[in-house]
Every structure is written in structure tokens, then in C-alpha cells.
What we know:
- There is one protein chain.
- The protein has 147 residues and is mainly alpha-helical.
- It has helices at 2-15, 22-32, 46-60, 64-74, 80-91, 99-112, 116-131, 137-146.
- It has one domain (2-146).
- The chain is built from 8 helices and no strands.
- It comes from marine sediment metagenome.
- Pfam families: DNA_alkylation.
- InterPro entries: ARM-type_fold, DNA_alkylation.
- This is DNA alkylation repair protein.
Amino acid sequence: MIENVIQEIRTYLKNNSAHLTVEQKSRMYKILNSDNPNFVAYGNKHSDIEKFIRELNSKFLLNYDEASEIFKILIKSDVHDEKIAGIFLLNRFKKDFNKETVDMIQELIPSNFDTWAITDTTMIRVIGPFLGKKGNEELTKKTLAAW
Length: 147
């Protein structure tokens, strides 16, 4: 099932990519400023990706473990939009986040977070709210000290 979900995400993102002029695409790449030589961005709006992920999750009735596996695959992609989709999918399971979620993301950051947009979206949507919850103070201190 995980492969079916990933394929559906990839197909949606590619089929719904923005029709940008050369100038618009150049500007987008400058703003995203990836250090990945194979970097690709389709230009999908984040709100459209998030809506699609919400619908996809309802269709497949995924659980946290499946979402985590899909996130781990998509965050390793060279395609910016796929990474964003993975972040949005994982974020749908924030009630299930735990120390392992933080460890997983910490492990993936060095080789897979190739733009500030990916880093910021992950920190603002995924890590920040979890670490900010009451009862996570010690984990927050340890995480921040390690990073």
C-alpha cells in the first residue's frame, strides 16, 4: 500500500504542477536556493498539496507508522514538492508524535533538508508544536542541545 500512496502523490504533484514561465521558474529556484544539484520543483501551491494529502489520507486510512515510512521516502526525493507532501502527511499524525519522531527527523536533516523551506516547514509544522507541548520540556532541552 505504501508504494501505491507514494505513486499517487507523485502523479498528483506532477500532473498539477504550475505552468511557469522560464523567468518564474528561475525566480522560484533562486528563492528556494537548494544545494542539491538534482533539485527539482514543480511549483505546486502548498495549500493544494495539503488539501490533496488530507483527501489521500482519508482515502487510504493511513496510520502513523505508514505515514512515517512514506515521509522517510519522500523527504529523500530530489523533488521539492514531494518533500513538502511528506511533511504534510506526517503532520496529519501529530497526536502520535514521540521521541522517535524527533530522532527520525534529526537523522534525516543533514542529507535531505536541502532548502530553508523544507527546514522551516518541518520545524514549524512538525517539530515545534510537538516540543512545545506541556510535558515535553526535557525532550525539548535535550533536542535543542543536540542540534
